[in-house]
Amino acid sequence: MITVFGATGTTGAPLVDTLLAKGATVRTVTSDPSKLDALKAKGCDAVAADFTDPAVLARACDGAEKIYLVTPAHLDMRQWKANVIKAAKAAGVRHVVVATGLGASPKAGLTFGKWHSETQELLKQSGLDWTFVQPTYFMQNLLWQAYNIAKDAVYYDDLGGPVAWIDARDIADVAAEALTAPGYEGKVLV
User: Fold this and answer.
1) Spatial CA neighbour of 69 closest among 56, 53, 87
2) Cα dist. 134→83, 124, 126, 190 in Å?
3) Residue 157 above 70 pLDDT?
4) Which of 53, 160, 172, 177 allows an S-S link to 15, with CB 3.0 to 4.6 Å?
5) For residue 136, which phi and psi values (nearest 5 degrees)?
6) Phi, psi of 95 (to 5 degrees)
7) Residues 52-91: tens digit of each pLDDT
8) Residue 127 in contact with residue 85, Cβ under 8 Å?
9) How many CB atoms lie within 10 A of CB 141?
10) CA angle (94 as vertex; 77, 64 as ends), nearest 5
11) Around 18, how many Cα atoms within 13 Å sit in the side-chain half-sphere?
């Protein structure tokens, strides 16, 4: 079984669909209990979980061979991911595919890059098999600028230069491959 944390998010939702299409048994984890019925209707086991509740995280990891881990961008995301890694290790999960970001490094220029690096190092030290999916900026994030583009015909870029955008569905396809095919353990997929 594969447990997908962030199953209703930008990469998690298409990942769930891709895994189900591949015939995988999927447990989905969302922080929004109102989405459980829709996830169950797809044929998934579904759990509502708070990233700070060890008992619920343990239940979400129980019986899983692999997990996909992504959290919302949040000040507590490092601790949330650490909590899941701890629960995964205790549950006997073998392989964790974690979505971080391009340029994750202790020397990253962006705070999120440093935070993602901390999670990567924690996962490496856990003894679990790991794969890091490091996408660039999601094309779906352009929708955040829709109002400004419509109002001012301007796209405000705070990224500091040219950026290669990627569709979140492509990120989900990469994660699905890492979760269902052998040979991705210990790999960084940029």
Assistant:
1) 87
2) 21, 15, 19, 5
3) no
4) 172
5) -85, -155
6) -140, 130
7) 999 999 999 999 999 999 988 888 988 999 999 999 999 9
8) no
9) 11
10) 80
11) 21
- Cα separation, 50 vs 87, in Å, equals 13
Q: Spell out the residues 6+ positions from residue 82 whose beta carbon is closer than 8 angstroms to its own.
A: 119, 122
Task: Write out the chain in H/E/C secondary structure.
Answer: CEEEECCCCCCHHHHHHHHHHCCCCEEEEECCHHHHHHHHHCCCEEEECCCCCHHHHHHHHCCCCEEEECCCCCCCHHHHHHHHHHHHHHHCCCEEEEECCCCCCCCCCCHHHHHHHHHHHHHHHHCCEEEEECCCCEHHHHHHHHHHHHHHCCCCCCCCCCCCCECHHHHHHHHHHHHHCCCCCCEEEC
CA dist., res. 141 & res. 109, Å (int): 20
Domains of the chain: 2-137+167-189 (3.40.50.720)
pTM metric for this prediction: 0.89
Q: Measuring CA to CA, which residue among 71, 50, 142, 133 is closest to residue 98?
A: 133
List pLDDT tens digits, range 101-140.
777 777 777 777 777 778 889 999 999 999 999 888 778 7
- Sign (positive or negative) of CA dihedral 109, 112, 115, 121: negative
Q: Tell me how far apart the alpha carbons of residues 156 and 133 are, in angstroms, rounded to a whole number.
A: 27
Token pair 């991705």 in the structure block, residue: 184
